[in-house]
């Protein structure tokens, strides 16, 4: 998971450099941030456990 | 006068704790959401050229890495693996402190190029300052967990909510940075 996050962060940085000044950059960066956010919230913070049935 | 005792079993208590902490995160999301919105409202996508991009990328990597060690600490606690738990928790604390040093360094440089009296400076120092305060409180909470965890048996596979809750908070601080980093350093 950390490898995926590291790769996405590197891609994010590259996108910012390659598309600097481009009108669509903000949307692209926020979309990348949303993907990173979901990976952390799902994998590290186990949000899906909130709606799993309780174990007995 | 009679007293009614309500029995709350362990599973229900943890479920209540889970809902409570996620509601807390929801509240915090509004705070960081407001800060990020203010950046775009006041400054648009303007970004000074003097921002230290390498340092921004480095502290982002440090915080992401600290999420991994925090996750490993939580997993170790849930398996009752005390040495691995203490090792990873200590690593998380050190990475958190390293992040704060990085922010301090960034502030030292930033105050010369865009002081808090400028538009971008106001946004930059407020946002990174509030986030750094969250990191600091996270480090303090992790230190408390580390201290209590050293007493053998305090956290084990049956009871480790103290670790889980604190680590969740740490991950949330990471999530906040995931949006702050492109907002302050990358958009242009």
Give a brief rundown of this model.
The complex is a heterodimer of chains A (56) and B (188). Chain A is built from 2 helices and no strands. With 56 residues, chain A is mostly helical.
Characteristics:
heterodimer, A: 56 residues, mainly alpha, 66% helix, B: 188 residues, 5 helices, 79% helix
Helix content of chain A: 55-70%
The helix/strand series of chain A, from N terminus to C terminus, equals HH
Q: What is the averaged pLDDT score of chain A? A: 87
**Secondary-structure content class of chain B:** mainly alpha
Strand content of chain B: under 5%
Helix- and strand-based class of chain A?
Answer: mainly alpha
User: If you compute it from the alpha carbons, what radius of gyration of chain B comes out, rounded to the nearest whole angstrom?
Assistant: 19 Å
Q: How many beta-strand elements of chain A?
A: 0
**Count of helical regions of chain B:** 5
Total strands of chain B: 0
End-to-end CA span of chain B: 68 Å
Q: Could you tell me the strand content of chain A as a percent range?
A: under 5%
Low-pLDDT regions of chain B: none
Q: Globular, elongated, flat, extended or rod-shaped: what is the shape of chain B?
A: elongated
Compressed to H and E, one letter per element, the order of chain B equals: HHHHH
Taking the sheet with the most strands of chain B, its summary is: none
How would you characterize the largest beta sheet of chain A? none
Q: Unreliable segments of chain A (pLDDT under 50, ≥5 consecutive)?
A: none
Separation of the first and last Cα atoms of chain A: 30 Å
Name the pair of protein chains with the most residues at their interface, and give those residue counts.
A-B, 29 and 29 residues
């Amino acid at each position: 998971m950390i490898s995926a996050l590291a790769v996405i962060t590197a891609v994010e940085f590259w996108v910012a450099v390659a598309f600097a000044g481009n009108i669509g950059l903000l949307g692209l960066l926020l979309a990348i941030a949303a993907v990173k956010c979901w990976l952390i919230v799902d994998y590290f913070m186990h949000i899906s456990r909130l709606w799993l049935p309780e174990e007995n | 006068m009679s007293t009614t005792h309500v029995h709350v079993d362990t599973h229900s208590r943890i479920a209540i704790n889970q809902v409570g902490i996620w509601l807390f995160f929801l509240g915090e999301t509004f705070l960081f959401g407001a800060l990020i919105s203010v950046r775009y409202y006041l400054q648009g996508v303007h970004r000074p050229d003097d921002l230290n991009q390498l340092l921004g990328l480095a502290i982002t990597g440090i915080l992401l890495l600290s999420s991994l060690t925090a996750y490993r600490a939580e997993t170790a606690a849930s398996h009752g693996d005390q040495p691995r738990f203490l090792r990873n928790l200590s690593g998380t604390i050190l990475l958190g402190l390293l992040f704060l040093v990085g922010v301090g360094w960034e502030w030292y440089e930033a105050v010369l190029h865009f002081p808090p009296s400028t538009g971008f400076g106001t946004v930059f120092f407020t946002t990174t300052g509030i986030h750094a305060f969250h990191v600091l409180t996270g480090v303090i909470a992790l230190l408390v967990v580390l201290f209590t965890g050293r007493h053998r048996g305090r956290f084990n596979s049956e009871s480790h909510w103290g670790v889980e809750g604190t680590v969740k908070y740490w991950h949330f601080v990471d999530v906040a940075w995931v949006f702050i980093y492109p907002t302050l350093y990358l958009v242009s």
